[in-house]
Amino acid sequence: MNNQANRLKKLIQANQVLANIESLVDLLPQLLRLAQDVTGAEASSILLYNKEKNVLNFAWAMNDVLGEKAMKNLKTGFELPMGKGIAGWVAEHREALNVVDAQNDDRFSKEADKKTGFKTRCILCTPIIHQDELLGVVQVLNSEDKECFGREDEELLESFGHLAGVALVRSELMLQRLNQQRFETQLEAASRIQKQFNPRQPKLEGGNLIWGSSVPAQFVGGDLYDFIPNSDGSWYIYVADVSGKGLPAALIMSALWTRIRSEALNERIPGEMLKAVNAGAFEFMNGEVFATMALLRYSPESGRCEYAMAGHPPPLLVSEGKADPIEKTFGLPLGILEDGDFGTSEILLEKGQSLVIISDGVDEARDVEGEFFGEERMEEVLRKGGVPHAGQFLLKAVADWRGETPPNDDTTVVEIYRA
User: Fold this and answer.
1) Longest dimension (CA), the chain
2) Domain-by-domain residue ranges, the chain?
3) Tens-digit pLDDT profile for the chain (419 aa)?
4) For 405, which DSSP code?
5) Per-residue DSSP letters for 132-168?
């Protein structure tokens, strides 16, 4: 009776110990040490079920007779097919098995004994199951104080198997949580790096304004905008939208940013610059992804604005009570064809007018009902908002429309205002 009470006490202690272990590497040896203590066994092993390969993998083995060195072979990739050996039989039938004479049992596989030099007399093996899902098996070998394991040992090891199942699931969940936290940390770092691509707002004289903002749908996004000064006092101003979202789009975005900055040094007209950017972009896009883009060359003093488009929504010309898309120029999105042509047009931005450039995340923003913000609503918001700061007003209107609904696309707005 005292022996049974002592074993039950060890089972309770095992529960307390396992509850405080989060790492699988730390958990497995503790599991086996506790299993041996509870059942009074010479050796033990735990095999985890590999669902993809439908095999059992020796995850850890412990032997007080042979020691650590002799058990090393069982811990390095030794697999046991389902149904083979005592452990395979237990896993396949999902029921415990107490083998009194292992050497004369047809189900017993002598492969592990050959690898270690250990002679198995008797085995007690139980499945590790959690919420009807097989996780593996735990087995103890050779009772130390009696010829074979008894019914009491069976009950104790089955109870221990339930504890092991909970501990394994908890350990896996903790690992998933740590991996998720690590991934989120990396995304946050990527987000901080990507924000460095956003340009500073230029300081222009006389109330003139060049402003922009981009809000990614995820941590990072594929929208891009920039303000690049030219030697004659003009500015390259553009908004680009890489297909897709998240990290893949962000990687393409960073490569595109570099290409545009490089081509800007030549100070070509917008159509020719897009042609050069497209040729370089095709090398890393290969027609598999693409990017739309609206590129302008704007002179604040004169209001002259040359522009070209690569499949991008046309900018909107905004003044008091008016908001109309400018004429769209010809041009396919970047990265689709190696040798693309892009037309260049020109408008004059009058005093008191703004040009607002958007990505399609603006008019395609959805509310809780799934309804798009839409072009008509966008133009109405700009007409009512007036200038300057039409871009900020539009961005707020989109956010209000979306409400608590997560953004379905990156949202970028750029405004050029001539005072």
Assistant:
1) 101
2) 2-171, 194-418
3) 455 555 555 655 655 565 565 555 667 787 788 888 888 899 988 888 999 999 998 888 888 776 555 455 555 557 889 999 999 999 999 999 999 999 999 899 888 788 778 889 999 999 999 888 999 999 999 998 888 998 888 888 888 788 778 777 776 765 676 677 777 776 677 677 777 778 999 999 888 999 999 988 877 778 999 999 999 999 999 999 999 877 788 888 889 999 999 999 999 999 999 999 999 999 888 888 999 999 999 999 999 999 999 999 999 999 988 999 999 999 999 999 999 999 999 999 999 999 999 999 999 999 999 999 999 999 999 999 888 999 999 999 999 999 999 888 899 999 999 99
4) S
5) TEEEEEEEEEEESSSSS--HHHHHHHHHHHHHHHHHH
CB 192: neighbour CB atoms within 10 A? Answer: 11
Q: Mapping DSSP to helix (H, G, I), strand (E, B) and coil, where does residue 37 land?
A: helix
**Rounded Cα distance, 409 and 278, in Å:** 23
Q: Where are the alpha helices (DSSP H) in 299-341?
A: none
CA 120 to centroid of chain Cα atoms: 47
d(CA 131, CA 128): 10
CATH 3.30.930.10 fits domain 194-418: no
Distance CA 242, CA 372 (A): 20
Beta bridge partners of 128: 136
Cα dist from 21 to 24, 166, 313, whole Å: 8, 11, 56
Alpha helices, DSSP H, located in 196-298: 246-264, 270-285
Tokens, residue 195: 């924000």
Beta-carbon contacts of 389 under 8 Å, excluding residues fewer than 6 positions away, are 209, 211, 415, 417
**Alpha carbon of 45 to those of 35, 67, 128, 215: distances in Å?**
9, 13, 12, 53
- Using DSSP, state whether 30 is helix, strand or coil: helix
Q: How far apart are CA 185 and CA 180, in angstroms?
A: 9
Predicted model pTM: 0.63
| Single-letter code of the amino acid located at 204 | L
Q: 2-171 has which CATH code?
A: 3.30.450.40
Q: Give the C-alpha separation, 122 to 280, whole Å.
A: 71
CB atoms within 10 A of CB 209: 19
